[in-house]
Design a protein that fits this description.
The longest helix has 19 residues, at 67-85. This protein is globular. The chain has helices at 5-8, 67-85, 93-99, 110-125, 135-141, 153-160, 188-205, 302-315, 317-327, 347-350, and strands spanning 10-11, 14-15, 30-33, 44-50, 53-60, 105-107, 168-172, 175-178, 210-215, 218-222, 232-236, 245-250, 257-263, 268-271, 274-277, 280-281, 286-287, 292-299, 331-337, 340-345, 356-357. By secondary structure, it is α+β, with helices and mostly antiparallel strands. Helix 2 runs antiparallel to helix 7 (188-205) and helix 4 runs parallel beside helix 8 (302-315). The strands form 6 sheets. The protein has an 8-stranded antiparallel β-sheet.
């Protein structure tokens, strides 16, 4: 799977992008295209650093709103997420769980348990390619830093003994238990989707139903622009060194929708003619070698979309398409064969008539 250390590498001051990872940046970068006219009300915008990347917010409301209060609320929510899910903060909830090397039931709160439950479903659907316990493998390969370390087969086998979603038990809505004391859980492959969803809820709780929330290229839209036009999303061409538009998505105006992308083309190591991307198959402990370079999942729930985009990219085009069709996941696959990009769509995406891709 892709470790969205990729996107989610963090330090004690907050999330810090690991230059050696695939980021939801580690992947296809999604940016938003906002076309506003001289209408009233107008789109309000603000941005800032978060999770090793940046966030961009656009919203509008027919009723007066306190823009300063909204900005503070968003920053506070990001701080709470950091303190809960950061694998780079020794005092975070998830790292407190990881550091307790025992098999006792531990309280982690309902957020982490809910993310683990989503990940368990996706892991099973991917036949174990996607796995939250893959953190030791990324450390073994040197993907947590700036230098690749190619491990030998015995080291990989030994590390694989620490890996496995089946070794993590959900006790209840707020407690987890390790079945193996040295198990480590890394939520980076799902946490950015959860972050987008959490920030979206901030707006909904304040009665704002027209917004675009984007964190590191992962985003969710609700409603439309003041002039009645839909939000439009640009998808970047997934090739190293290029920053040109590959696709434009016109988002539905009457439904919330998230766009989550995982990709391989920005963060990788080259060694003796072999390219090693930060996509590890948890079943074999090695980087995948297929030609799938990006997967975009379009789904109402950003958290679910985030996990699936990671899992489908891990599986590759053939197995990933089979898994997406079986689970009815709307997904856009992009393969790179030499310099040619080949697109394919899951059945659910082909029938998703609420969204236009061109």
């Amino acid at each position: 799977m892709i470790n969205k250390q990729q996107q989610w590498a963090m330090n004690p001051q907050g999330f810090k992008m690991n230059p050696s990872s695939v980021s939801r940046y580690y992947g296809l970068i999604l940016c938003f295209v906002i076309l506003t006219g001289c209408t009233d009300p107008v789109v309000e915008k603000f941005e800032g650093p978060a999770q090793g990347t940046t966030y961009h917010i656009s919203y509008w409301s027919e009723l007066p709103v306190d823009s300063k209060d909204i900005e503070v609320s968003v920053k506070n929510e990001l701080d709470i997420i950091d303190k809960t899910l950061s694998n780079y903060r020794p005092d975070s909830v998830i790292e407190t769980f990881n550091s307790a090397e025992n098999t006792n039931s531990q309280e982690v709160g309902n957020v982490i348990v809910s993310l683990v439950r989503v990940a368990q479903i996706v892991s099973k659907a991917s036949q174990g390619c996607y796995d939250l316990s893959i953190k030791p493998l990324f450390e073994l390969w040197g993907f947590r830093g700036d230098k690749l370390t190619i491990p030998d087969a015995p080291a990989i086998r030994k590390t694989l003994d620490q890996i496995g979603m089946e070794k993590l038990e959900v006790v209840d809505d707020s407690h987890l238990r390790k079945k193996q004391a040295n198990l480590k859980v890394d939520l980076s492959s799902i946490a950015q989707g959860y972050s987008v969803q959490s920030i979206s809820k901030v707006f909904e709780q304040k009665g704002i139903t027209n917004y675009l929330v984007e964190i590191g290229g992962e985003l969710k839209t609700q409603g439309h622009k003041p002039d009645g036009q839909a939000w439009r999303i640009a998808v970047e061409r997934p090739l190293p060194g290029e920053q040109v538009m590959q696709k434009v998505m016109t988002m539905p105006k009457d439904l919330p929708m998230a766009v989550m992308t995982s990709g391989t083309y920005r963060h990788y190591f080259d060694d003796h003619g072999q390219r090693y991307g930060h996509i590890l198959d948890a079943r074999i402990g090695r980087p995948v070698l297929h030609d799938l370079v990006a997967v975009t999942v379009i789904y109402e729930d950003p958290t679910i979309a985030d996990a699936w985009s990671t899992a489908l990219l891990c599986l590759g085009q053939k197995e990933g398409m089979q898994a997406a069709n079986a689970a009815k996941i709307p997904a856009l696959f992009i393969q790179q064969q030499d310099k040619e990009l080949i697109e394919s769509r899951s059945d659910a995406l082909n029938t998703l008539n609420t969204l236009t891709i061109h």
